[in-house]
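Subject: Re: docking follow-up (flavin-adenine dinucleotide)

Dear J.,

Thanks for your patience while I sorted out the input files. As discussed at Tuesday's group meeting, I've set up the holo structure prediction with flavin-adenine dinucleotide included as the bound ligand rather than trying to dock it afterwards. The sequence and the ligand SMILES I used are pasted below, so you can double-check that they match what you have on your end before we go further.
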Amino acid sequence: MSTPLTVRVLGAGVSGLAAAHLLAADGHEVELVDERFTTPAVGTALGLFSPAQQVLSRLGVLEEVRSISAAPEVGTLRAADGRILATVPAGNALLVSRSELVRILLDALPDRVTTTRRRIEDVRPLRAGADLLVGADGVHSLTRRSGWPGRPRARSHGLTVLRGTTALEPPEISETWGRGWLFGITPLAGIGTNWFACLPEHRTSSPAEDLAHLRRTIGGHREAIDAVLDAATPQRTLIHGIHTAPPVWPVREDVVLLGDAAHAMAPNLGHGANTALRDALSLSLAVCGNAEVRRALHRYALRRALPGQGWRLGSEAVMRLAMTASTAALRDRVLSGSSARGS
Ligand SMILES: Cc1cc2nc3c(=O)[nH]c(=O)nc-3n(C[C@H](O)[C@H](O)[C@H](O)COP(=O)(O)OP(=O)(O)OC[C@H]3O[C@@H](n4cnc5c(N)ncnc54)[C@H](O)[C@@H]3O)c2cc1C
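The structure tokens for the complex came back this morning:
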């Protein structure tokens, strides 16, 4: 092991929890800071693929996560009229509630991780006396805004995402691409159905009104979607925009960015949390193998900058394809043609 470092981690989401755990397990002194250490009441699903599962295994929580996950084998991509555009193998993904995943990661934190509940307005005091500051503070990262001044902030894509859970048995596993909207249905173990929708920005102060707008926009296209929308309630619906952050080199001096702080991406390839977990493992391996912090961080950046930005760009391209209104008919023809040729 390298010389023990004093590490501060800002942000106790998936990336910060994993990094704090792995660095503490390597013998470093870790303080984890977040304005809240609570898990959201509505736990919509995250898909975790094999590389992320390997990180969970390192953290000793894979079997617990697996025990509360759904593991579908295949899903379909459909047009608004229900036509199958593509059959998509799930690739051993585990579908787990994000809030349950965060709870498991929190419970598994080694005792030697100190946790501090505080909203941070200035990262300089966090750097004072620390060998390393880990910015795992999400898409609007204060760490990134402070340490990378002049870089553009995260930007909105002018879209609204609604997602929720219902006790309904999932009528199918699918993602439907309409003209300027999408709707997804997956199982969520122990709950029933996880659903998500994306449409052009429309947000009021009332979740009930936002859900009603979604029903007006998307309802009536497909029976499976209508069944889920009928069962959805404002109390079990989360509503937010989509923001992505412009690319940055994720290391500066003794500060490193992880997860959404480094490469916030559109949700369309379902890889934000997967990439965040890989970041955490790479950071701990780089720090473990290098006595000198800045060299270790450089090594981390060389490993992670490209995959992070690759997923960010790929996710944005898929988001544009999924959400197009003007070329939706052409998109559907091309996709259904290529899936027919492949079968
Ligand atoms: C609709 C949707 C679906 C998704 N589906 C998937 C999926 O299927 N698979 C997948 O891999 N990913 C998915 N993602 C992405 C995934 O949720 C994120 O990429 C991931 O959770 C990011 O984790 P993080 O730890 O980097 O950041 P966050 O989870 O945002 O955590 C940041 C933490 O920092 C804290 N914080 C921030 N600023 C401060 C401050 N100033 N002071 C104190 N605390 C602070 C916050 O309280 C928070 O706890 C999806 C995202 C969306 C929006």
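A couple of observations from a first look. The longest strand covers residues 155-166. The chain has a mean pLDDT of 95.

Let me know if you'd like me to rerun anything.

Best regards,
T.
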